[in-house]
Protein: DUF2798 domain-containing protein
Organism: [Ruminococcus] lactaris
Amino acid sequence: MPKNKFQDVIFTIIMVFVMVYVMICYNIALNIGGMKNEVFLSAFHELVIMGPLAFILDFFLVGPFAKKKAFSIVNPERDNPFMIVLAISVVSIIGMCPLMSLAATLLFKNAGSQFIAVWLETTALNFPMAFFWQLCFAGPFVRKVFGLLFREK
């Protein structure tokens, strides 16, 4: 886990890239009726917009809130570090998924008068994917990469 602001920025950049890129691929695949090779390239066009937005939301809003809320649930001095990571991750997903789904609805869905319905549908479709991708793949992968970049002495 990050030990200072610089490490926190690097960790957040890596996590945002891994989470947002996959979630964009997932949403494009949903929109076109299935996964195709071109999805991987198309996702980079949206990543230019959604990546910085996710960084800002996570670094300045959701991340601090998630840590504060998680530390009200678990105690870093007595609980297993896995439980701390799990608590922070789950609270982050609960915050980021509706916010990023809102951004996607505004920017890419052309929802018109059905905005609320489309946003709720987008959030409902994204939440299970975001939850399992974060907890089972992205989180462990990013923590491993981060650990290799910032080895503790």
Q: What stands out?
A: The chain has a mean pLDDT of 96. The radius of gyration is 16 Å. The CA atoms of residues 74 and 84 lie 6 Å apart. The helical segments are 5-32, 37-73, 81-108, 115-149.
